[in-house]
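Thread title: Can someone regenerate the structure for this chain?

I was given the following input by a collaborator and told the matching structure tokens would be attached. They weren't. Posting the sequence so someone can regenerate them.
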Amino acid sequence: MSGRAPATGVPQEGPGGDRGPFGLRLRAFRRRAGLSQETAAARAGISTRALRDIERGRVQRPQSRTLQRLAEALGLSSGELGELLAAGPTPRGAGRPRLLILGPLSLQRGRTPVPVTSPMLRRLLGLLALKHPEPSTQQEITDVLWPSGPPSSHQSLVHTYVSQVRRLLEQGGVRNGPPPTVVRTPTGYLLEAPRNQIDLGHFDELLDQAERLHRAPDPVSAYESLTRALRWWRGPVLADADPVLRQHPAAVVVNERRVKAALLHADTALLLRRPEEAVPVLWDMVNTEPLHEGLHARLILALASSGEQAAALNVFNRLRDRLDDELGIAPSAEVRDAHLRVLRQQFPPARRPDRPAPPERAASAGPFPAQLPAMAGSYVGRRRQMRELDALVSPDPAARAHVVAVVGAPGVGKTALAKHWAHARRAHFADGQLFVDLRGHSPLPTLRPADVLAQFLRALGAPPDQLPTDEDEAAALYRTLLADRQTLIVLDNARDAEQVRPLIPGARGCAVVITSRSRLAGLVASDGARQLVLDVLDPDEGRRLLAATIGESRVAAEEEAARRLVRVCGGLPLAIRIAGANLLARDARIVDYSAGSPGDDMLSRLRVEGDRRSTVRAAFDLSYRALPATARRMFRLLGLMPGPDLTVDGAAALTDSTSAEAAGLLAVLTDAHLVRERAAGRFGLHDLLRSYARELAGREEAHAARQRLFDWYLYHADAAARLLHPAETDPAAGTPPAPSAALVFSDHGEAAEWLDAERENLAGAVLQASGSGFTSVAWRLAESLHPYLSTGMYTGDCLKVATASLFAAVADGEPRAQAAAQLRRAECHRALANDAQALELFGSALELARQADWTEGQVLALRRIGAAHQENGAEHLACEHLSRARELTRCGRGAESDVDAGAGAGAEAGPEAGAS
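Best answer:
Regenerated them for you:
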């Protein structure tokens, strides 16, 4: 949609020109020193013409003494001199790329093109270069070579084409180095070549260098790197290739990096008041990306800043018409803002060499606000999150964030992170820092936006007697006062998006950090905020936090106990700090403090005497009380989960609600960071939150909820067992009644998938049911689970479930269930090679089966005892037990298939399955 052709007078460093990085780096160092060519040349004792020729690349490498004098004149360090030397030219042909894909595909030997005429070879070579340095898979190669479908001989053809490409690359090799080649990988083929042999490698290296220089910040050097990077482009990537290759995901990514470089180049040019240098690049890019609004917005500003306001307005009008015709949408806010700045003449004009730089903005009267509260001692970890917050001070306007919302569970360290980052980066905000605790989750009343605006306006110098009483007017004045400032605003402990929206200024020079227990999804969706979700500390970070609190020597002396304490605290920073404070106050050993303190008891210990705010329970209380009643009930009952998580349907059974109602309540709890979605559709609680929730549930409420959940698990485990293992289930036992939120398994796959997903929960349900008085459910659920656990070789789970089942059956007075559980335990020990223990348990199971008059159980026990004696060489005992087993079978008191079904599936479980 260009209104004119791109300018071509820019000297090229890429494949079409010789201007290398040496001269550009030297010029950047000279400009940094603030010296003209004449002054720098005089100080170095060389002519101005010689220095000009060096900077323009006409002198390939100056003499070493000339370089030394230039380094002294420019004040270069030894490292910078080394960097300059590294930027110098390499031997002829050695550094020139041999494979060019940033435009039409071209293979070169020095300056001589190597013909690549075969379309198949051009496709293959282009794909390998695109994916470099990653391999191309066999499937990718096949799809690119034969977009309409491969022939039957495609594998041998691929080998042939690869061999031909290798020969082509040998022709393109340089004389003083090994040529590129194609090597086989386990998944496909890889182009083996140094990055500097491909123009894409040069571009990526220069773009990465520019991004590093922007972060430094060094905009002049970054601009030079971006200019050199963009000169490698001769058109869209693989411009002459087939659509299947031009639209390959790797090609799309490369083109996106070109757009990124162009945007950064334009922003830097505008920053340096050199907009006319960005115009040719932007014209070229909008021809390639005719609907990219970011490129058009920068072209509008660059043209206007270069004195071509009419052309800038024409670009806007043509883009607006095109967007309307092709997409039916209006220009974005970014484009409209650029258009408005042109109309209002609010753009930075190009800096003319005969005019001085504009003066800096005068400092405002009165002291700047510096409201950041004190930091809480030492701070450890969170390096990745600190880097994410650094987007607020990025020198790259395109990458710079304006608002970051730090969200997470109570006690996870949101405020500590915000304060630590704010103190560390306060130098970036010359006009001060504003801070407020919004009391979104606090025993004190929540602050209204109008109250906060009044505080901030006074801090910004507004006369107290002239503050607007209307909230909208106060917000407008607040934005006006911050319009030309660089101020950091920290909004701590926000309740929701509505509370903070009036407090977000419009000035792009300001940055806003918000902390909240809510997800603040509305700010992300409507206000462009970035969300930073804070989780608990990993074990090493937790250990370092404990060491920072009580001293490294104490932690090192009790390393194992310290790490156990961190685990018991669940990695929650608040819990670790409180535990550390208690250790200091009591001068106790770590092992004594944490011993016997799992679960609920540990939650009670995590409090500081005399400080009601310094307790983990108090932090949880504030979030819990802010919930609606139905969500509070869901949270309480989730603490009763027997396993690590629940599905929506399981939560519906637990709370006696519909699946839709349960999903809504889980969303509320997830938004409040009291529940986390551990995997898609599966919800769990942090260990301390789980203890807290469990203690909130009343006895009768907990009993009814557990009964519903155990019945739900029993129903589905029984249904899955009848579908997957019909020969191993007892038809006479009957099917449990269907609970609420019952699922229907349509085939074996669904049943097996459900059992795999719920295995930990089902095993936990047997253990919890056995220990909390639900004995009948416990042993029945264990019977339904046994075929799955044994055939799946989950021997560890199988043993725990069988033991809990035995205790439940004893409490229930069910001798047959006792015999079955003892058989399961014996089979597990046999699988784990505990032969003596297994033999003893088989004997006990035999006696229990006799008491229950359970023939099938007796036969299985006799067979296992006989086999054990046979393995031990006791042939007489083996024959005796096996004969008795055959006698029972012949008497017609048990079918052999039924005998094997009783408990024999566990016999094949291997010891390697011991861990669940």
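The chain is about 55% helix and 5% strand.
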